[in-house]
Amino acid sequence: MADPIHQFEIHNLFTLGHIGGQEIAFTNSALYMAVVVVGIAALLVGASSPRALVPGRMQSVAELSYEFVADTINSTTGKEGMKFFPFVFTIFMFVLFANVIGLIPYTFTVTTHIIITAALALTVFLTVIIYGFYRNGLKFFGLFVPHGIPIYILPLIVFIEVLSFLSRPISHSVRLFANMLAGHITLKVFASFITLLGGLGILGVAGATLPLALVVALTALELLVAFLQAYVFAILTCIYLNDAFHPGH
Amino acid sequence: MAEDTRGTSGNGGPSDEEAALSARLQRLRERLAHRKGVGRDDEPQSGPRSDPSAIARGFRLSTELVAGVLVGAFIGWALDKWLGISPWGMIVFLLLGFAAGVVNVIRAAGISGGPGQGSR
């Protein structure tokens, strides 16, 4: 049976150099991140270069992605959240492209490594904290003090709120990572059932149609999940950014 | 809805053609905005817009709870190690973390407002 974890292994493609005795290598993960960035740039720069009033197919896609993210930000944080449009758009497109490119057979899915999703989630987390303090000063601590709480249970509530705030980057990163990882492992396992059953003779081949149908269905589901998780990641980024704008709600 | 922020009609020159074009663009924008509103109402989902499907929603709720408990457990463990008060840090912070997880879930489900939700 094919090893379902093998697809997540990191290989060094070539070594860039050494920093303090630590090897800095260009890995397959880095390669696919570069592919993602090139893909996004190709879509956005290439598609919008005609600047047609009535957009063509590709320009339509680029404009739709803009409208989609802009709508998401507007509906969660309001107009002032558009300040963070480049940030949210970058995150959304990166996650979306990484997820979708990873669905192509023989490719590597960048978002199946928690270090990537955790780095993204921590970037959002630190952005919220830094911008929150920059914008609101010490009033940002109002985030941890809900209104209308009796004074004698307030310390307990503040502790819970702080813990809830600290748990955000974890749930934010684990959700994306676990979804992608689980999806790819499931696909791999069911796909290996096909070859296993297919080797069992005529009855096995008949039985192998079952996992084959399942793999087809799962691939469709994974495509949905790939998009959905990028969307969820972006909308949670917006919701968290909203706290930087309006603490103490 | 589509606000008039892109300013495609803002640079309309004195000529009639451009004025007519911008008027048509304006009409198109209004119709698009109208259609968008209609399309959104037609969608079968009834929850808030942050929950596009049941899978994502369910997964989000479970990770929220687990994340709260994990953070509580980690802080408790670190305090135990640091202050040598084992097992009290773990007990207290695991419970607090569980409470934080439940708060997260309630907020993610949109049952109550609060700091996580803010004004929409």
Describe the protein's architecture and organization:
- The complex is a heterodimer of chains A (249) and B (120).
- Chain A has a two-stranded antiparallel ribbon with strand order 1-2.
- Helices cover 69% and strands 6% of the residues of chain A.
- Chain A has one domain (6-245).
- The mean pLDDT of chain A is 88.
- In chain A, strand 1 and strand 2 (22-27) form a beta hairpin.
- Chain A contains seven helices and two strands, in the order E-E-H-H-H-H-H-H-H.
- In chain A, helix 1 (28-48) crosses helix 2 (57-77) and helix 2 crosses helix 3 (85-102).
- Helix content of chain B is 65%, strand content 0%.
- Chain B has two domains: 8-43; 54-108.
- Chain B starts with 15 loop residues before the first helix and ends in a 12-residue tail after the last helix.
- Chain B has helices spanning 16-42, 54-83, 88-108.
- At the A-B interface, helix 2, helix 5, helix 6 and helix 7 of A face helix 2 and helix 3 of B.
What's the topology here?
The complex is a heterodimer of chains A (249) and B (120).
Chain A: E1 12-19, E2 22-27, H1 28-48, H2 57-77, H3 85-102, H4 114-136, H5 154-166, H6 168-198, H7 202-245
Antiparallel strand pairs in A: 1-2
Chain B: H1 16-42, H2 54-83, H3 88-108
Produce a short descriptive summary.
Chain A has 249 residues and is mainly α. Helix content of chain A is 69%, strand content 6%.
Are there runs of chain B of 5+ residues with pLDDT below 50, and where? Answer: 1-13, 39-51, 115-120
The two chains with the largest interface, and their residue counts, are:
A-B, 40 and 35 residues
Q: Terminal Cα separation of chain B, in Å?
A: 14 Å
Helix-strand topology string of chain A: EEHHHHHHH
| Mean pLDDT over the residues of chain A | 88
Question: Structural class of the helix and strand makeup of chain B?
Answer: mainly alpha
> What Rg of chain A is obtained from the alpha carbons, in whole angstroms?
22 Å
Rg for CA atoms of chain B: 25 Å
User: Number of DSSP strands of chain B?
Assistant: 0
Q: State the helical fraction of chain B.
A: 55-70%
- Mind summarizing the main beta sheet of chain B? none
Helix content of chain A: 55-70%
Tally of alpha and pi helices of chain A: 7
Please mark out the parts of chain A with pLDDT under 50 across 5 or more consecutive residues, or reply none: none
Number of helices of chain B: 3
Counted up, domains of chain A total 1
Q: Which sheet architecture does the biggest sheet of chain A show?
A: 2 strands, antiparallel
